[in-house]
Every structure is written in structure tokens, then in C-alpha cells.
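job 3f2a | input accepted
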Amino acid sequence: MPLVLATTTPGEPEIFASLQGEGPSQGKPVAFVRLSRCNLACVWCDTAYTWHFEGDNRPHRSGATYERKANQVVLSDEETAERIAALDQNRLVVTGGEPLLQGAALAKMLALLPGVRVEIETNGTVEPHPALDPLVAQYNVSPKLAHSGNPADLALVPERLRHWAAEPRAAFKFVIAGPADVEEVLALAERFAIPRERIWLMAEGTDVATLEAREAWLAPLCVEHKLTLSKRLHIQLFGDTRGT
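job 3f2a | predicted structure (244 res):
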């Protein structure tokens, strides 16, 4: 069963080795595979080339749309696994887009990578495929707050949030643009019984200056509310570029 991947350049799948830049595994060496397509449309999304294709009228602050053919590539599960294995990393991060939209195909591919610790980045709205779930060591769940521009009934699904709150493999990573976003996180944590030790707050931004300015006021709020600050290490190291 084929997977639909994002590209670094036309025809070249976005499969690469780097350091995990965000969340609980920040700084660890990993292999990355970025899948294409998303069921949400964040106005500040920094990987809009995975979903904001020509003809898609969902808003994005850049106003740019992307040619689907140049920004998507289809690979078999065997070839995808071979490319990942060639990177010789014992940890794999599956990101997107929204990877859980391709759960069945992803399960077939991951079954070809025994011994690799798998993390999946997800927006938290899609139920994991039953064949995929046993293969996942960690879910990095990033529910989208009001400032993402997504309707709450699409982005914050109560059944899903309750599931992730009760799932010990799930870490919650919230994108924060202003202090009001922290209040929204606290309300969600209270409503869905999300343990604060499993919540990371990460400033929104694609350049170091913006991130540092927001982290300056976000850090004391993390201290006050006993939450963990996540950096965006890859932005600091490589800038806002594909394949990093």
C-alpha cells in the first residue's frame, strides 16, 4: 500500500536525519519522514506545502498555494522503509501534514522497521488505526487552539482529547502566539484532565527573533503554571527550511 509523502524538491521525498527540534525528545538524533495531506488548516502552518495546494481556498497567512505534483510523491511501503533504514537511526519521527490520515499504509511500512522507536506527530483529531497503534512508542499530540483559525468543532474533538489525556504515550504540545493561548491550554487541561507534566508550550514562529521574543514572556508562565517550555531547535539551527 503506497504512502503519500511531502517533498524536499520535486520528486524527492522528505525523508532525512536530523535532531528532533520540539517536545519531549528535543535534541535527540532521529530519522524523519514527512507525510502529505492534512484535515486541518492552520493559518500559521509552517508546512503548508503538505496541504495548501492550488484550488484549496482554506486561509493561510502567506496567501501562497502549492502545485500538488511538485510537492507530493507516492512511495511503496518497502521503498519508504528502505530509505528510512538507510539513515541508520534508532528513532523515527513521522510528521506531516497529519500522519494518522494514512494509518493503514503507515502501519504496513513501520512493520518493516523492527527495533525502531516510532514517534508520531498528530493534531489529535484522528483515531490511530488499530494496526498502527501497537507500533507507536510516543504520540506528540498538538491540538490546535483558537488562534490557528480552525473551527473548534474540527480541531478540538472532545472524544479524541479524552482519549489522548488517558493515553500515557501521549505528550501534548501546544503552539502559543499570545498569553491568551496559555489560558486556553489551562482550560483544556482542566476540562479533559490532561496532566500538566505531559504538557509542553511552544512559541509560534519561524524565525529566531520572533521565537525569543515570545519565549521571554512564555517562560515565566510555564514556571507559574508548572508546564514545560519547548524550543524550536531546528529553527535556531537550520532556519525555516525543508528537510531539516
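job 3f2a | The chain is about 30% helix and 20% strand.
job 3f2a | closed
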